[in-house]
Amino acid sequence: MIKAVLFDLDDTLINHDAAIRSAAGALFNNLISNRENDCQAFVERWISLNREWYKKFYAKEVTFQESARGKLREAFLPYGYEFSDTIADTLLSEYWERYVSMCVLFNDVDECFRQLEQWKVGVLTNGQENQQLEKLRRCGILSVLDLVVTSEAAGFPKPAPEIFLHACNKMGIQPREIMYVGDNLELDAIAARNAGLLGVWFDRHHTDSLDSPSDVKRINRLTQIYEVVQQNL
Of 163, 170, 172, which is closest to residue 182 (Cα–Cα)? Predict the structure, then answer.
């Protein structure tokens, strides 16, 4: 019986991809104007570097601020820019503020949460504690969540089973009684399944090139979660 539903945050509840693209484009244009083709290439490079430097942060090789500075410096290196810590931090602060201001909930989140009012609902996300909490707060859903677990606070990033089990222990609910929903098949759904939870792959974009395992449920809209919960009562 499912007693709680946990969600990934970025690109599951919040449109992270659109926000990071907008913020990265503005960052580039503030320093290098009237170079649209270069801007598009920069945004793709920024997204790739964002993943790489977050991995270093998750592995505890660098602090969160060091990962941000490293990403910034590496992104602008091909354009001949070098930044002191002070300038880097100023640019990152401006980038962060724009990024957060652009973070919005997908349009099916509110209805999904209304459908799940009888169940405990939480977020389990990779990322830095204060950053992820601020995004939830500004999007207006922090107050309705029963639990928020970040990889920084838990000490383990997804796909490690420890972060899922940490969340289960905090909720006081057995893993088999918790559903985890995320947009990444391997990192979210399969990782949750491997930790003993019911893994649900939220394939919003109908990814035909990937097939989910038979024991991982695949949905395309968040409002389908209610049906899955009902099937597991």
Answer: 163
Q: DSSP secondary structure string, 28-58?
A: HHHHS-S-HHHHHHHHHHHHHHHHHHHHHHH
CB-based contact 153:129 (threshold 8 Å): yes
The helix or strand, by DSSP H or E, that contains position 86, with its residue range, turns out to be helix 85-102
Over residues 59-85, the pLDDT tens digits come to 889 999 999 999 999 999 999 999 999
Residue 129, burial from CB neighbour count under 10 angstroms (0-12, 13-18, 19+): middle
Amino acid at 48: S
CA 93 to CA 73: how far, in whole Å? 14
Query: In this predicted model, what pLDDT tens digit does every residue of 93-146 receive, in sequence order?
Result: 999 999 999 999 999 999 999 999 999 999 999 989 999 999 999 999 999 999
Q: What's the pLDDT tens digit per position in 176-233?
A: 999 999 999 999 999 999 999 999 999 998 887 677 788 899 999 999 999 999 988 7
Backbone angles phi, psi at 216, to 5 degrees: -120, 120
118: DSSP letter: T
d(CA 14, CA 171): 23
Helix (H, G, I), strand (E, B) or coil at 82: coil
The pTM of the full predicted model, rounded to 2 decimals, is: 0.93
Please write down the HEC assignment for all residues of 141-177.
CHHHCCEEEEHHHHCCCCCCHHHHHHHHHHHCCCHHH
